Amino acid sequence: MSSPSVTPAAVGGGAPSTPSAAGGPVASDAPARPNEPTLRWRSRAHSIEEVEQELVRIWAHNVEQLMGDRDGDHVNDRMIGARTNVMNLVVIAGRPEVGERCAATIQRLVGRHPSRTTIVQPADPDGPSWLDAQIVAHCVLPRVDAPETCAETIHLVCGGEAGRHLDAIVAPLLIHDLPVTVWWPDEPHFGSDPVNDLLAMSDRLVVDGSGWHGTGLDQLRKMAAAAERFPIAISDFAMVRQSRWREAIAAIFDIPDFLPYLRHIRRIAVTYGVRDEFGAETTNIVKPLYHAAWLGSRLAMTVTKPLAPMTGGPSRKAPVRSSSGRVTSLANPSAGLGATLRLDRTDVALVIRPVLSEMPAGTTLRVELLADWRGSELRADVTAEQEAVHVRVWQDGVHALERGFTAPRRTDIDLLAEAIEAGGRDPVAVGTLALAAQLAGGTPP
To answer: pTM to 2 decimals?
Structure first.
């Protein structure tokens, strides 16, 4: 039988600790440090019933400690951890290393967003049903004079029939009356029964569409269909990461002289990086598509022609200079995808094109806007570096604005915290996903 592959770094944290021989409370060799997660419990189980028993043991033990440490009406200097859960977090990890990485991320949020976390790793779909679980509890000391805040994590590896019915594994372990967030760091098979069953019992789905195979467009269409079918909110890290781009673009039209051009955009061009001349056919373009879909949805644009391969002249390389001065080249000027949007009664051309770049494949390199209002032309160019976003604007060919915004890229910890903090469906995210799916060839809702 397989067992969860969980490294000490993934389930430990904080001061070194020693579990009891039979599994249970973990004795710390050093005092807890504020805001550092410390392992307080570790045990094993081989059925859902045993997992539930271990969860009861954790907090029964905590209560016994609390009652035993009372001195009259006062608790001694050692603060007892208080169980604090604000939500259920379910992680579907296809590989052990994915589960370990997610567990490490979630640990950093125990003090901010304590949750009962269940990390599920399906394995061996054939053969008899089996389950192997590791139950751990981490506590965080908010400050030296406060009690610890604790939350439990259940690492499940399940095979056979158990691995094919994830909802039946997860449901008994949820805390009733608390929202359920499903974090799927790999690639959900939207439309399949296991995914549908999980979505039916969830309030929010967290994904990263930029990591899906191929162009990601097929998955994008299916995710939009799932959002129509189930009353869930969706947080896509690929979309959330672009907030710094969106803020920079919106800032252009905060300037009164540029605002009239906003409803007269005629062309949107998004350039993304590929690693070789043939990368455009297999590179994920979810992130560049989200840029156009966000702008189009905010301006209530509609799709008249979805994305399709562009045709042009013979293949050749053409130099392109980035904002940092680095010279790259178009993988193929005739390659790329084009679509047509409608703004009011005017067509808007959309171009998504690949450029040879040293950046990770699928990374957005540039967003260009062209607007024409009363015979006057406005051209805007937005690029981003690791820690900043740059905006340049030309009005009738004259350089009119150059501005930089300090905006570091956010980590998975930041993105997961934002997804957890979000309440209900975000209208901007809903509109962006819907229009992106239509541009990718999906049916309008």
So the answer is: 0.84
